[in-house]
Amino acid sequence: MDATYRALCKHGYAELTMQDIAAESDKSKGTIHYHFDGKQDLLESFLEFLLTQFEERTETIPGETPAERLHEFLDELLTADDEDAVEFRTAILEIKAQSPYNEAYRERLRGFDRATRDRIADLVAEGIEAGEFRSDVDPEATADFLVTLFHGAQTRATAVDRPPERTLEYVHSYIDETLCLASDERDGPSLEADARTEE
Amino acid sequence: MDATYRALCKHGYAELTMQDIAAESDKSKGTIHYHFDGKQDLLESFLEFLLTQFEERTETIPGETPAERLHEFLDELLTADDEDAVEFRTAILEIKAQSPYNEAYRERLRGFDRATRDRIADLVAEGIEAGEFRSDVDPEATADFLVTLFHGAQTRATAVDRPPERTLEYVHSYIDETLCLASDERDGPSLEADARTEE
């Protein structure tokens, strides 16, 4: 899976061959072919692996309050965390563009979409429950909106080289200003919940 | 250009050949090759043609007030207007994913991004000027946000088959609730500007 990641970053999706993946691993092309029917089969497993990794990594999100955890989660989604991030984002966009032609890719991409929406909707619902977010916020609609914005930030980064960090700024102020109750609207003092907006 | 559009919708970007384009036109493959160096060259001209068409079509946007025109413009962006829309959206996403490998595509995609942002920023600035939108709204930041959301809606439609119309609903309420001044915050009565929110 690491070799597939490196090969995708190096060659992109369209040009990728099993040989490229073998070259990045300590296995021969024959051994890889023994385990996977071909490039598509291997990439289906790779997307499955990424989804499982994503679900595990985001099972517990650090932060004292739901709002802090939502900031943190979106930071994680929109911040490039290694030097191959640009190339990997491009490869994922190529795979998204293949989705209408490939039911197996589409299933994995839907799994990602669903997992991302669910995580966000849960955090928003927790924030409402905790009296940190406005009670009239709809967790599902908010999650759907933020996932769309996330896809947009990724696409624009690839298509027109616009840094996704600019969307992150917007997202942070959206959480603080649109989702969070203003301090004077809250039931009682909540130091933790206020910490972020005062930064 | 019409033949290129039809061929892209039928075959997608990756599989498209000059022969496919010739088959959709009344020209021979030889004639097309006489005018264009190959598929990339033809598609660069096609993107150029789309951009010019887009700029001309959106030079005047119907609507009585800036808010109405902004609603109309985003309706236009996010509504599929023919039966090939799904296939065409996929082809455009394939081209976006090629952008890092192709400077000429990137230039055209940047032209689109810029034209879309400029149209939106102008409408938002007009709305502020007319006292219809809040004076603390930033036209450039709003335009950038809406363009990101537009890209996200297009990408999710292709990647996970989520209808872009759902984003359109969000966008309409964003204009009415976040950009527009509430009727009681306005300087004077403005029947036209109120018409939309009362629908």
UniProtKB/TrEMBL annotation, chains A, B:
Query: Which GO MF terms does the UniProt record name?
Result: DNA-binding transcription factor activity; transcription cis-regulatory region binding
Domain HTH tetR-type: residue ranges: 1-54
Q: Which UniProt keywords apply?
A: DNA-binding, Repressor, Transcription, Transcription regulation
Name of the protein in question: TetR family transcriptional regulator
For the keyword Lipoprotein, the answer is no
InterPro entries documented for this protein: BetI_C (IPR039538), Homeodomain-like_sf (IPR009057), HTH-type_TetR-like_transc_reg (IPR050109), HTH_TetR (IPR001647), Tet_transcr_reg_TetR-rel_C_sf (IPR036271)
Among Pfam families, the record links this protein to: TetR_C_6 (PF13977), TetR_N (PF00440)
The family database entries (PROSITE patterns) matched by this protein are listed as: HTH_TETR_2
SUPFAM superfamilies documented for this protein:
Homeodomain-like, Tetracyclin repressor-like, C-terminal domain
From which residue to which does the signal peptide run? Answer: none
Keyword Zinc found? no
Q: Locate the DNA-binding region by residue range.
A: 17-36
Species this protein is from: Natrinema saccharevitans
